[in-house]
């Protein structure tokens, strides 16, 4: 009897998942959270049912011995033949398979009532792990480095404590009070990510207070942005480093009184391309010239600095130590003072053991959503687009991001796919702002099935429905692989990553596989299905 009721609950849970796209997916996520707690509770009662037993845990494919059958779990069903495994895909929408929601509620995080109302209105019912760890730490006034895997909700992890301190939802602004200068600045490496963050802030602020946030991204009309700054006096600005630095130099951006500075995708922002602009931002935001007792420049910034990324190399830790005051490291559900992190700490090797690269690789492992499956296949250069097309059909993927390294080749791929009747579009930096946002909109609403793009889309892009990422060309390293891969499997959903490489590149794939500590299954596309074979045989053939 108990078994029947447990499986009935499990079916209800699955039905909720299948209806995921039709109803609000956020309320489904909350439902999932509640029901997974219920299932855990049931498990404790009869001692037999666990999330893992329901295949809701980490579904990473595991490799068995060379001659033995390889086992794939989750949405892939195996059907053995003599020397190869046939993998038949079940038709299901992207499901949440990996629990990443916290045991705490938003109420327990110390957020003001109006912000809680906003969260409820927007359908955010339960915080994710990283949110429940980061929010109280930042509200307490800590500077923070937030590191958690792609799609785990890092944006709200820093937005919620900011909105609980400044602006209309904080409950701290007195009516009729003259609005001060900008109080929070959020910097992101691309226009798309900047705009995405603006939309997240606008959603929480609601229609009456949308003007409290202003975007300062490149590619848009600068004069108009400057006018909006003057007219609306926003409390929060979100922008790209170049445009922020440009307006700051013109004297039209008053950020000396800024209380929060966020660098989202901080490891990218520390790269050579952005160095000068970021330096200016760090030097000006939240620092009042002449604030010292003798009129000298204030030594310590009067702001909270929050650095965020799925990949945190040692250079970020060094930067955090020099820019911040007693910073903490927030990882998933854990908060550690940055200074106390030991070189040999198993969770994250922040202090390089043999080389700085080690520290980077350690964090890369934690940057990947646990529910992702990783495959690779071999193709001659001239047949890669065909491999992509067959891969999309075999997995019946509905929302696909295909990555290449150079924007010039994207058009060619788009032509070839279109010629075969597949709806696709290219997205790269050479397109104008309008062109880029139109393509993204079409991809998000399902008009475009395959988005062919370059590194521009590897970071931050949040399309919940994306169920497949294909590397048509190899990423430069494991960190880039992780960010590309993270465009699928968002917020604990299922996702598949297929890397199409040439035979001479297999050793690079193997190296990334080793660095990431994850199995990449060798696969082929046969009779409209994804087939996993033993790679040694395939390569020798
Ligand atoms: N508590 C929550 N409940 C439901 N949905 C959430 C919650 N928190 C965030 N989300 C949604 O999850 C998605 C992923 O969040 P977000 O983009 O912040 O992830 P991320 O960790 O910053 O990823 P990346 O590293 O790729 O930038 C977004 O669509 C966001 O609105």
Automatic annotation (TrEMBL):
Q: Which Pfam families match?
A: DEAD, Helicase_C
Q: Which residues form the Helicase ATP-binding domain?
A: 135-330
Q: Where is the Helicase C-terminal domain?
A: 387-531
- The segment(s) forming the DEAD-box RNA helicase Q domain are 104-132
**Where would I look for the motif Q motif in this sequence?**
104-132
Q: Which reaction is recorded as catalysed by this protein?
A: ATP + H2O = ADP + phosphate + H(+)
Tell me, what is one Gene Ontology molecular-function annotation carried by this entry? hydrolase activity
Q: Does the keyword Nucleotide-binding apply?
A: yes
Please tell me whether the keyword Kinase is annotated for this protein: no
Which leading EC class covers this enzyme? hydrolase
**Any idea of its EC number?**
3.6.4.13
Alphabetized, the UniProt keywords read: ATP-binding, Helicase, Hydrolase, Nucleotide-binding
Name of the featured protein: RNA helicase
| Species this protein is from | Raphanus sativus (Radish)
